[in-house]
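Reminder: ligand-aware prediction takes two inputs, not one.
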Amino acid sequence: MSTEQSAAQIDQPRSRAVFKWVLMIALVTFFAGLLFGYDQGVIAGALKGVGDSFKVGDTAKQIITSWVTLGALLAALVAGTAADRFGRRPILLAAGLLFIAGAVIQAITPGVEILVLGRVITGFGIGFASVIAPLYAAEMAPQRIRGRIVSTYQLAITFGIFLAYLVSDIADSAEWRTMFLLAAVPGVLLIIGVMIVPESARWFAKVGRTADARKSLAKVTEPADVDSELSDVEAQVSAEAAEGEASWSEVFSPRVRKALIVGVGLAIFQQITGINAIIYYANTIFESAGLVSTGAQTKATLYCVGVTNVLATFIAVAYIDRFGRRPLLFMGLIGMFVSLCAVALGFATQSTSDTGAGTSIVGIITMVGLVVFIASFAFSLGPVVWTIISEIYPGRVRGKAVSFATAANWGAAFLVAEFFLTLTSGIGEAATFFLFAAMCVLGFIFVWRYVPETRGRSLEEIQEMWNKGGAVSDWEKTAPKP
Ligand code: BGC
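Here is what comes back for the chain with beta-D-glucopyranose:
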């Protein structure tokens, strides 16, 4: 299949029927992300109410917050194997069911222990969704808009965070049970969506169900392209099948190692550059910008963080298949570096000369820094990382390798959540944010040295590039024109 696509061609799938199915697949991806994002955001609003109801201290609050991440990590590890064995749809259905169960348990819990159980079950649902939704989207999306479809996943995460902030702003924290129960809505939407969409054609081909693979592919491919697309997929699958069932040791074999390092590295850099610490710390930073009332801080968090996060993600959705993945990562990391330095300088100056009362120049710089940081993350590391992870692995090990990279992401998220407070009280806020800024520099070097451009290439062509050696400079030389 030709990879020379004009800008106009990537705007829309050409026929209405194909458009309808691609839209459905994008919607399923969207609901899965919504489920992830709502949960990330809701805890900020619900935690105070939970604390008041059960009279618990900081340790319990920290467990209530962070054990979702542990659940997600565990589920992410098994999600790929399960999806390779049973298909992508059953695991997405399980994600929806687990999420509904977790939401109901959290809403009706008589005490903290059951609440934590509900959080872990919710985490299982998020872990499944976070591995399988982008992978399913990448396997089903037409190649020319693959980045765009996969990045709707990140758009949904940001929209979920925004909705949760909005609910927290409207509702009183005493209504925390309702806040948790509302999380069941994306779970229900996901289940309805998954019942409608077809199973991944690449998975059908992998398990030898060629007729089903053709049917599934025909839904998302223009009729004239179905045959060539199917033979590409089949050639890849049979080359892989000749080697037998993929084992975990193969995920770490020299053949997959380069791709594994790229995925895991990106997953870790996405977290250690501080996104969730910033999201968590937003209120305090707005306080330093002179917003003294809690209401004003919640509003600032809702609009500056929540809305900026959603809007800037559209930049990625629009440009990821035009500019490519690497330019977005470079621009984003530069924006994140500069803004983190501004926030760090804000803290450094504030701790020595500012008393914190009233809106100061330093406070305003800090606030602008925060908005720039969120925006820069939202059009780069946020969506691009999930996209690249879902497209760079050979089909044989794709499920397991995506699982591993996603689990690394959750592991890093857990560590940042656990140690951020310890770090800020140990070395101070300024040094902590400078540390995140330093991670952006390392991230930049990592992307420059190791992350290939995957725009405009089919998943099969990406494999060929790895097979040829996978040096970033070779990928650049043969990159399809935007
Ligand atoms: C990250 C989350 C983060 C979110 C913010 C996602 O891509 O994986 O950890 O909270 O973006 O929008």
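The chain has 21 helices and no strands. Confidence is low (pLDDT under 50) at residues 1-11, 352-356. We will return to this case in the review session.
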